[in-house]
Design a protein that fits this description.
about 350 residues; alpha+beta; four-stranded antiparallel beta sheet; 8 helices
Length: about 350
């Protein structure tokens, strides 16, 4: 068999169960030849070979047709060596399938472990494809929501660099690329967008004139909330660091790395890089909340002449430093006009200054 020549297969014949090999030996010992027609081949196989006790284990390896005059399918078993590394498992499965495809007969290779090895073969292209699609979608959404196309480009660049750093450190932290880590990596794209988009928007809406002023204002406005959000997330997932389950440990390490790289990009890299692009970035005013006009309406109208305040209503009176000034504090009924509504305040101290 050509399969036995593989370095992943035990080459000794005692480790291979093939009814074809033993049946050809049986024909050579019985008829002194292996050149027989199809009818005699099936007849001797069915009536002589499979009825012997030493060959009865092959009954499950041969599937005859309904009339038992022909063979529809059969199987043979080969035993592999100990394969530990995932790269060797992928090579083993690929080599066996290649040998089966190049055979003259229609062969199908199957092993229960191939179900798990299959993910190692498709995990890399599927991860790259999912990351490209997710990043492209985020870039399109950022073009519509960000105030300038350069901001969308900067957000996309931050996503790519953060994901690259996370994947690179994961390999050093013994986190293998599998289905679990792939889901975590794709999930981290959302966190990367949060860090970069908030800082970019704060820089665009900054009232500063120079790049340094706008960067400092953006850090003053959102630096503390971003830092608090990243540190609180790291603190929340830190309980998973000592979990015995690989799923939770992989989730913690991936999220910890994306928070670490996200904070570095939003607080260090992005403000500095945006300051160099200050001349091409627009300036937009931050929206302020609309408030009603507040007016204070005293109970008596002011006039040009000074009107003395009754002594029973005076709480404290003291002269001012400048000559000709007089200050007094009284208790009066005061009204506040807010959006055409008159609100009364009782016993409010009013300080009057008369020149």
């Amino acid at each position: 068999m050509d399969f036995e020549s593989s370095r992943f297969i035990h080459g000794e014949k005692q480790h291979t169960e093939s009814w074809v090999r033993d049946y050809l030996t049986f024909l050579s010992e019985t008829l002194n030849t292996t050149n027989v027609d199809q009818e005699l081949f099936v007849q001797l196989l069915r009536d002589e070979f499979l009825t012997r006790p030493e060959f009865q284990n092959y009954n499950k390896d041969i599937n005859f047709n309904c009339e038992r005059t022909g063979i529809e399918s059969s199987r043979f078993v080969i035993k592999s060596t100990e394969v530990v590394q995932s790269t060797d498992e992928m090579e083993f499965m690929s080599e066996m399938r290649h040998k089966a495809d190049s055979a003259s007969l229609s062969l199908t290779i199957f092993s229960p472990t191939f179900i798990f090895i299959e993910q190692y073969v498709i995990i890399v292209p599927n991860t790259i494809q999912a990351l490209l699609i997710a990043t492209g979608c985020m870039f399109i959404v950022a073009l519509f929501l960000m105030p300038h196309p350069v901001c969308a480009v900067m957000v996309t660049v931050c996503i790519v660099t953060i994901e690259t750093g996370v994947i690179g450190v994961m390999s050093l932290w013994n986190v293998k690329l599998d289905g679990i880590s792939m889901i975590n990596i794709i999930l981290c794209i959302g966190f990367s967008v949060d860090f970069s988009s908030h800082m970019t928007y704060a820089f665009i809406t900054s009232p500063g004139k120079t790049g340094n002023e706008r960067a400092m204002d953006a850090l003053h406005t959102l630096g503390t909330p971003i830092l608090q959000g990243g540190l609180s997330t790291i603190l929340g997932i830190s309980v998973l660091s000592s979990s015995p389950a690989y799923v939770f440990r992989a989730f913690f390490r991936t999220m910890f790395l994306v928070m670490l790289f996200g904070l570095f990009h939003s607080l260090v890299f992005l403000p500095v890089f945006l300051s160099f692009l200050n001349t091409i970035l627009p300036r937009k005013t931050r929206p302020t909340p609309e408030v009603g006009e507040i007016q204070i309406e005293p109970s008596r109208q002011a006039n040009n002449a000074y009107s003395p305040i009754p002594k029973d209503n005076v709480e404290d009176t003291q002269p001012l430093k400048n000559k000709g000034e007089h200050s007094s504090v009284c208790k009066e009924q005061v009204y506040i006009l807010y959006n055409d509504k008159r609100i009364s305040l009782d016993s409010v101290a009013i300080k009057e200054t008369v020149l």
